[in-house]
User: What shape does this take?
Amino acid sequence: MQQLGGIVVKLDRGFPLVRCDDGSLVRCEHAASLEKNAQVRAVIGDSVRVNLPDGHDKGVIEDIDERRTCFVRRDPAERTAHQVLAANFDLVVVAEPLVGLNYGRLERELVLAHQTGARVAVVLTKADLASDEEEALAVRDKVQGLAGRDVEVRVISVDDEASIEAVRALIGDGEVAVLIGKSGVGKSSLVNVLVGSMVQDVGTVREFDGKGRHTTVDRTMVTLPGNRFIVDMPGVRGLGMWEADEGLGAAFADVDELAGRCRFRDCRHLDEPGCAVREAVEAGELAQERLDSYRELAAEIESVRARREEARQMRGEKASDRKKRFGKRR
Ligand code: GDP
Ligand code: ZN
Assistant: This one.
């Protein structure tokens, strides 16, 4: 029996596909010891140890390394459960359409993106649909103002090579990017032009499993020219909040900074005296909608926390047990 390290590059009907250190692609199942704990399932980007038993058609994932970064959302089917969608990436790219951009959704996406601990960028897609250059620049400036200086914002269109090159340049040598955004925003088109003439990993996979199945709900880590990788996350419909206090603080750095100046540390910015946040709104320095979004997301995070706490107490579990199941964060 041989043991190898590898990276999960695809999830396929519960069987992770692992690219092993020796370059081979191996379809895997989870070891019984991992199966016992329903929380422990390899996701795309996971760094794993794989056993290759002789005469066995599948590898066995024996161990999953601690996650450097992970993308987590609330399980759309279960209110007190979470889902990890990807792990160990360096950059989250949030895609929103330049025309018809939904700012509320963008803010939500930015909170979850920041919460991962990875760098965050925004691409505004289908710029060719804007009526003119001025419109495109106005949207970009508004998004830049909302996202903050630490977030790179790129305006792209698949026919504009320079704009695609600017996206490629966001991903460093050996880095993995994760692409999120609603269906139809242009994610797979972007991945395709980023890949250029390269044969995608899915081509290799097809050969491997011999079935040629490639549905859009599968998440695949695609290799880009120059040792860069990107994971398109199609089928990510709901983006419900989970544990996201740091993400909220980072995505709403403007509000966070003001909140630090409120008289009371636990100020809810409602009717407390000495509230710097409300003062800023009254002075026209902070948009009311911005504060409303912040409150809404903060309330969602709080209600998820409350429900989880309730569920935990019903199970008689201590709050400290929870940390062990979670990936490490910065
Ligand atoms: P996904 O669901 O996010 O992967 O979106 P797709 O990549 O499938 O794109 C959805 C639709 O938008 C397709 O019809 C694409 O041809 C179109 N599309 C993608 N990028 C662009 C673009 O830059 N400009 C225009 N005009 N259409 C685009
Ligand atoms: Zn306040």
In short: Confidence is low (pLDDT under 50) at residues 198-217. The radius of gyration is 21 Å.
